[in-house]
Amino acid sequence: MYLIDDYIEADSVDEAVNLLADNPERLIIAGGTDLLIKMRDGILENVQMVGIRRIEPLRKIEKDEQNVISIGAMATFNDLVRSELVQNNIPIMAEAAMTVGGPQIREMATVGGNLCNGMPSADSAPALLVLNARLKLLSKSGVRLAPLQEFYLRPGKVDLRPGELLTEILISKEDYLNFGGCYIKFAPRKAMDLAILGVAVTCRIRVTGIFDLVRIALGVAGPTPLRCEIAENFPPGKPVNDSIIAEIGRLAVKSSRARDSQRASKEFREHLVVELTQRALKSACNRAGGISYD
Amino acid sequence: MASGIIGASLPRLDAMAKVTGKAKYTGDYFLADMLVGKILRSPYAHARVINIETSEAEALPGVEAVLTHENVPGNIYATAGHPHSLDPERGDVADKTILTSKARFVGDEIAAVVAVDEITAARALKLIKVEYEMLEALLSTEAALREGAPLVHDERGSNIAGSAGYHVGDIDSVMQQADFIFSDEFETGIVQHCALENHVSYAYIDEDERIVIVSSTQIPHIARRIVGQALGLPWGRIRIIKPYVGGGFGGKQDVCLEPLNAAMTMAVGGRPVKLELTREEYMIGTRTRHSVKLKLKTAVSNEGKLLAIQVDAVSNTGAYASHGHSVMLAGGSKFKYLYNFDAIRYMPRTVYTNLPVAGAMRAYGSPQIAFALESHLDNIAVKLDIDPVELRLKNFNRVGYKDPNTGNQILSCGVRECVERGKELIDWDKKRQSFKEKNERGSHKKRGLGMACFSYGTGTYPAGLEVAGARIILNQDGSVQLQIGATEIGQGSDTVFAQMAAETMGIPMGMVNVVSTQDTDISPFDTGSYASRQTYITGMAIRKAAGEVKNKILEFARRISDLPADCLEIADANIILKDSGSIIMPVAAVALQSYYDRQNSEPITADISNNARVNAISFGTTFVEVEVDIKTGQIEIIEIFNVHDSGKIINRQLAEGQVHGAVSMALGYALSEELLFDNKTGKPLNNNLLDYKLPTILDTPVIGLDFIETFEPTGPYGNKALGEPPTISPAPAIRNAVFDATGVAINRIPIRPQLAFEKFKAAGLLEGGDQVVPD
């Protein structure tokens, strides 16, 4: 049962922003794969909505002269999977996008919706966190740029202010050039499932087999997707080897804030953080070309 | 079987209609003026209804009726889809009313609304104010069995719904003299059928003041009787129609919606009312599979001969009995045919709790018993240092074994051949050795092999009545109409029935029109689709009816041709001379004359019923290879093979389909599926297909299979059960493979990564060693 009081489909970004300015309560519906479920379950009722699916520019994935990659908020997961630009520059995004739902969901669901829905299990979030993504938020009063890390407030709640529309996700070249990356989704099923834990790792390796930089982000290891700063601070300058990687895995737990739920216990999640951070980092190292693990 | 129809992979009759969307299911029908019914379910696991205030709901525009226990019939009835028992002592437990004044689980049916549309009905539900007096929620069998526990059903005097068992031989003396006694404890989770089509029905009162219910049911004739009992109306006033059904698996071998749906239409002057459950309602508001805790104690000789077994089982039937204790009795009676024990003591108890109602589900108690027994045997094999296959081969029964309690006999048995074939398919001996060596090298990924066996009955005899009807009408062009009371619910029964009729009558499949819809006003009596009974029990009726029609055709041919009937035969829809094969006339000519010959006109029909007082025993095995990721608890099926002795296979492709579906169901049972409830409130935590982990196609390996085709002498075409059996042995086989891979005996299913992690940790497998390899 979908109790919808009012639905307007915006043809342009301006129209959408105007509609939101007129009525900040208006809900933005992108792919609908989260919103419609909430409505069916009666969590949302009698809503007024603005549809943004027809706004083609919001779906673009492109790179500017400074090599800043811009992902339109309305890019679907299938758009990410199929984009050569994504595959060639930020393959971890395509890898994460491929783990979302099933083929039908990936065709409808958008990366902007995935972020704005604010769930700790959003598969795009850990990957975008390690890419230091910034969000371009448009409202009648202008553009606001916000780092993704500061966007997440608590489960289901992001810093999307009244009247704001997420239009683009920006990734700078210093956050992806010469990095190797890997996203591991740990879920009971191989499709159509939510992560019990998501681990995204990117790393840069000095030619001498020394870690230059490691970035780690976790999904479902706390109330929001999070970065593992303690673990990230450890490797720079240290050699790429099993014991260093094992230590990074152990340190990653220090930033996690897992809890018990019917899906998995805190203890199991923390064990998985240690294990899967190592696995993701080793794959990332392989892809960064620094060392070969196989 | 010269025609080759029996055994061929003929396409199912409804394939085109189903893939093109032409086939209509209950939910596809819309009548003018149709209303929508919705159910108000209890938010509490155990609570007495003190007061229900419905006036606000009634006042909502578009609401046509509000029903509560105060204005619907209050007859207490049993819901289980079994034949009526003439002996009141042996009938199913009657403990259900259409709507209840006492909530017995979260989801129990307290009130209902009939409205012009779904939104109005849902709004009206929110306007019904129910005042409850809270009672202690009994959320486990331990809580329900505790001294002084409140009663789920006051009038029954106990929370034990049934405790009958059986024994064979003198177990105490056998146990005393045995070389070894082994004990183990096991537990299985609550799972749900998850048929593609949720429960749905619609009901109206027809021109003759009779109540017509169109329902997605496995058991139309039984549903008619139960609706009559629930409403307190003569059974003939009820008419049940069953269109195409999108899966049942036992969940629709029960009467869940029909009495309330009938009460709904009665409340609105007979206007049609549709009652369609959501997935969330279906998963808790219909039926589940019993969770069972089992204690096994087995006496074994030095040589590995199984001597005696004691099984103590506690089954959680939830808030209402439904099939109740029958499930434990059935499950406990079927393993006897597999292994030759000198003595058995089977002590099951079926216990009421404040959880959703457990009922019939594919293989009816056997998956639980087999999980425990087959896992137990592998534990024993390891302790005795015997290959698990050898242990089983030493102890299998043979043709001629007679069930000491019932006298029913094994007349065909291919279990040894099944096991030999399974070994060969998975390359048992070679891999067992090579995996041991590889696993010792210390990777976090371990390989293992496991196997398990089962025996199973065909139909319910001698516990239940096994009557089936078939009617065949020879049409004017020589084709036939085949009417049966047995229900096609997706398993392919209509197709194999057509094959059977064609085979016996000597006509091609294309000349058999199966009437797929069952209508209790028209269809012959048959108790329905369950217990893997249809090809066997209904098959007997079809063979009898087809034989009768054939004889009548030949007799008619004799009359018009003056050739003696016993020198005639039918082949390829022609009457031929038996010896020479020369064609006398087409069946079509006989058919036409049977209608219009001015002297001899007597259209040919047969309308028969068959009461089968036999039960054929099916056998089979699963062999499986797994890879266990010790560090994450993930279990991957590398290869799986089911090998079955189901007698003669009637339609190879449909038989393979049954095995594929049943193994897939068992994979979920073994590894991922379990309905979970809040342990304080009893609220369901995962009654949806996101949180309840039904495997997807990506989680399903290629399912290998083979058949050992014995010939079952009591089967109408040499056949015996296949519908349920393939779901019995995969779970213990997988568990045994994990045991082989890791040395850790996990005695509970599902083995989700969380549980595997806990067990591996407890066994010390996670200590030390940071050897991690990337995927």
Description:
The complex is a heterodimer of chains A (294) and B (775). Chain A is of the alpha+beta class and 294 residues long. Helix content of chain A is 34%, strand content 25%. In chain A, the strands form 4 sheets. Chain A has a 5-stranded antiparallel sheet with strand order 4-5-10-6-7. A 4-stranded antiparallel sheet of chain A has the order 11-12-13-14. In chain A, strands 1-3-2 form a 3-stranded parallel sheet, with helices on one face. In chain A, helix 11 packs across helix 12. Chain A starts with a strand and ends in a 6-residue tail after the last helix. Chain B is α+β, with helices and mostly antiparallel strands and 775 residues long. Chain B has 3 domains: 152 residues, Aldehyde Oxidoreductase, domain 4 (2-Layer Sandwich), CATH 3.30.365.10; 198 residues, Aldehyde oxidase/xanthine dehydrogenase, a/b hammerhead (Aldehyde Oxidoreductase, domain 3, Alpha-Beta Complex), CATH 3.90.1170; 328 residues, 2-Layer Sandwich (Aldehyde Oxidoreductase, domain 4). Chain B is 28% helix and 24% strand. In chain B, the strands form 6 sheets. Chain B has an 8-stranded mixed sheet with strand order 3-5-1-13-10-11-12-21, sandwiched between helices. In chain B, strands 7, 8, 9, 14, 15, 16 and 29 form a 7-stranded mixed sheet that branches. In chain B, helix 6 links the parallel strand 11 and strand 12. Chain B is globular. Chain B starts with 14 loop residues before the first helix and ends in a 13-residue tail after the last helix.
Strand order of the largest sheet of chain A: 4-5-10-6-7
Q: How far from one another are the termini of chain A?
A: 51 Å
State the name of the first-level CATH class of the largest domain in chain B: Alpha Beta
Number of helices of chain A: 12
The helix-and-strand class of chain A reads: alpha+beta
Instruction: Please tell me the CATH architecture of the largest domain in chain B by its name.
Output: 2-Layer Sandwich
How many beta-strand segments of chain A? Answer: 14
Give a short account of the largest sheet of chain B: 8 strands, mixed
Shape of chain B: globular
Structural domain tally of chain B: 3
What is the number of helical segments of chain B per DSSP (H or I, 4+ residues)?
Answer: 19
CATH homologous superfamily title of the largest domain in chain B: Aldehyde oxidase/xanthine dehydrogenase, molybdopterin binding domain
Largest interface: A-B, 36 and 30 residues
Helix content of chain A: 25-40%
DSSP strand tally of chain B: 29
Low-confidence stretches of chain B: 770-775
